[in-house]
Design a protein that fits this description.
mainly alpha
């Protein structure tokens, strides 16, 4: 039986996302990755100035789902005693999390660029 603990009231966004990904099912995380891939395919084909925002948002969703899947697999492997494989998944998960943070920065910069528009020129 799994016991879900409540987050403390002053939890950060990263702590909230980590707790949410750890409590999500495999199916939910897989759907997140597939929806992110569909949005990414649409955003790449979209000819607009908002392409960066769409691509970055899709990459954020994909990174969240992949990181959550890696975390589920890592916890399972650690419980079976496969420490080295779990360590590899932890490293891969860290790389995916960094990619997700970079995608979030891309969303912020893209929205900022759209908001500024032609004010600078």
């Amino acid at each position: 039986m799994m016991v879900l603990s409540a987050l403390r009231p002053d939890a950060s966004l990263l702590e909230f996302l980590a707790a949410r990904a750890r409590s999500a099912t495999w199916r939910r995380l897989t759907v997140d990755v597939l929806i992110g891939a569909a949005i990414l395919a649409a955003a790449v084909r979209w000819d607009s100035s908002a392409r960066l925002v769409g691509v970055s948002a899709a990459l954020m969703l994909i990174a969240y789902g992949v990181w959550g899947l890696f975390e589920h697999a890592r916890v399972g492997l650690e419980s079976m005693g496969w420490r080295r494989t779990a360590s590899v998944l932890r490293t891969a998960g860290t790389g995916v999390a960094v990619a997700g943070v970079l995608a979030a920065i891309g969303v912020l910069l893209g929205v900022w660029g759209l908001a500024l528009g032609t004010w600078i020129s």
